[in-house]
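Researcher: Quick test of sequence recovery. Tokens follow.
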């Protein structure tokens, strides 16, 4: 089963409600699909030791990888920012690790008021460091 974009956005909005953000009150939700159409959600999880905070995007990616999926096909991020916020630098590098073709991934950024901004991952993170650089 492949979700529509609107269904994936709905899943990301629902995931955002599970965020643990008692310090910033900045809840973020993420939903991604993998190449076979599987869906994984994530939300930010904060910690009193701020450096331990985990972003929604990375929690969704970790869930996908734990289930054996390593290829992100689409990704939605939901925030409360206007305009909708983009993934942080650490998440961009993490997304880059699990995208076969960074130029083909479209990222959908939305906020709780329904604003939407679509951006290509390549535009968001050009010249990313990849495993092939290590060879
Ligand atoms: Zn992040």
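Model:
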């Amino acid at each position: 089963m492949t979700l529509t974009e609107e269904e994936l956005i709905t899943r990301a909005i629902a995931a955002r409600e599970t965020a643990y953000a008692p310090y910033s009150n900045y809840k973020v939700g993420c939903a991604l699909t993998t190449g076979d159409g599987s869906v994984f959600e994530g939300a930010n999880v904060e910690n009193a030791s701020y450096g331990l905070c985990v972003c929604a995007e990375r929690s969704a990616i970790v869930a996908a990888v734990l289930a054996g999926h390593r290829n992100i096909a689409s990704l939605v991020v939901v925030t409360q920012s206007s305009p909708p916020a983009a993934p942080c630098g650490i998440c961009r590098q993490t997304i880059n690790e699990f995208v076969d073709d960074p130029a083909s991934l479209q990222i959908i950024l939305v906020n709780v008021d329904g604003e939407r901004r679509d951006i290509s991952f390549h535009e968001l993170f050009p010249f990313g460091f990849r495993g092939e650089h290590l060879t």
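The domain at 5-134 is CATH 3.40.140.10 (Cytidine Deaminase; domain 2).
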